[in-house]
Amino acid sequence: MAENTSYTASYNAPSYSYGGGGGGGAYGAAPSNGSSTSSSSAPPAADGGLRRRSAVTPQYGSGGGYDDETKKSRKPRRAVVEKLDFMFPKVDREFTVKTKGGGVASLVATGLVAILIIAEVITWMAQNGAEVSRTYVDNSLGKKMRVDLNITFPGLACDDLHLNVIDIAGDHQLDIHDTLKKKKLHKHGGPMTRQELEVETNLHRKQQAEKDRILKEKLPADYCGPCYGAAQNEGDCCQSCDDVIEAYTKMKWKTDMLKFTSEQCIREGRDHQEVKKLIRNQGCHLSGYMMLNRVAGNFHIAMGEGIERDGRHIQTFNPEDAPNFNASHIIHELSFGPADGSEPLTGTTKIVTESVGTTGLFQYFIKIVPTSYVGDAFPGNPDLVEISDDGEARLETNRYFITERFNPLMSEGYEEHTTRVEGDAKRHAVEMNHGKGHDHADHHQIRNSVLPGIFFIYEIYPFAVEISKNYVPFTHLLIRIMATVGGVFTLARWADSIIYDRRR
């Protein structure tokens, strides 16, 4: 009789139950929920036979199982991301080969990377804060230039020291003293004491009072000398030549022609006064500043007094007294604007001796370059930096470069003697000091045509320089380091690959 069996299982793998003889225990796979979804009309098997049990579908849910729907949703996303991994493909370790050459290349590359990183850091630190200059045409007009100076003359008295300025624009400044200060020194360089200065001042006052008394005896009692338009108040009188000169000085007018035009100076005989002789055994310290036009010119401290006639500068001095003008000087400071520490003449010392002609003409040829410092680039006093209207810190000054020359007043000369040699009219013997036979040379001092003094001849360049500090961001350093590391290791990999392929 045929058997009719039907199964309704949703799981493909059936479970079986093994029974032992005599209706022994059974082993089988039971569904997790303890229920069966199959039905069978087959008769039970005999004891010890194999019984087929229904297959059930396992359910994996919230109890920690695997969710088919989550698996289907995550798989496409992961596949898309994996397709984007074209730059960093992975190779299993079992497919890689490690060699001795690769280890050496790794060590060399690592050491080279360390050295290059240190070099990059040092370069970045050097570039960070370095000066950067920019040159442009200077089109500024009508500006003044301040000159700060501090000079000591150990062998020149203050009464014989006169600072004059001449420029190509025709401006003459004679014996500048309103912004300059003179301090008398002893011959050994020490400053004069207050008592010594008072004694000298009192002596000068006595001499001036005696001269005024003699002049007043020749004048009427109600005499009131004119000040020639330089009077501070209406009705002021200028009784002497010095009063007229002082009034002109207060008005900042030129005084060089007063000695020859004012009645007071003519009456005192100042119009034909002889040039005074130099004062010896004294020194002078000159310090202060002066304002110059920004055009080429010169300022000098020379022997005698300067005067201006018909637009020309004339220096009056006694030629016989020229050897007594000691041009020795020590420049403590000379700057054309705020000092930035690059002044080449600062600290210059020139001492004349008999071996170099006792005195002479010192000439300093100065090339001035207008310079602007932007931001915190100025190396000098930061308090001098000004803030412009646009909020930018800027300081204008002038750098300069020099060449110098010295021409002594006295130089040693040689006199040549020519004698005709007997028997040959075309042969001559010049007696020079060669140390042979009767040859000899006559030595003597020759006086050169120079004006003893110190001349500063300056010229201003038509272009200017702007100086600022360069700041490199830290991100630039990181970019360079990353490029260095990547490049070194890439080259090392290529070299190792080429060597490995050749060895195979």
How would you characterize the overall build of this protein?
- The protein is α+β, with helices and mostly antiparallel strands.
- It folds into 4 domains: 1-65, no CATH class; 134-187 and 281-409 and 448-471, Acid-sensing ion channels like fold (Sandwich), CATH 2.60.470; 208-278, no CATH class; 411-446, no CATH class.
- Helix content is 23%, strand content 30%.
- It is built from 7 helices and 23 strands.
- It has helices at residues 68-83, 100-127, 194-217, 241-250, 258-261, 263-267, 474-503; strands at residues 15-19, 26-27, 50-53, 130-137, 144-153, 163-167, 172-173, 180-186, 282-293, 297-302, 305-309, 312-316, 329-335, 348-350, 360-374, 386-387, 393-408, 410-415, 417-420, 428-431, 442-447, 453-460, 463-470.
- Strands 4, 6, 7, 10, 15, 16, 17, 22 and 23 form a 9-stranded mixed beta sheet that branches. A 5-stranded antiparallel beta sheet has the order 8-9-5-13-14, with no helix packed on it.
- A hairpin with a 4-residue loop joins strand 6 (163-167) and strand 7.
- The longest helix is centred in the last third of the chain and has 30 residues, at 474-503.
- The radius of gyration is 53 Å and the shape is elongated.
- The two termini are 77 Å apart.
- Mean pLDDT is 75; it is low at 1-58, 60-66 and 418-439.
- Residues 83-174 form the Endoplasmic reticulum vesicle transporter N-terminal domain.
- Residues 227-496 form the Endoplasmic reticulum vesicle transporter C-terminal domain.
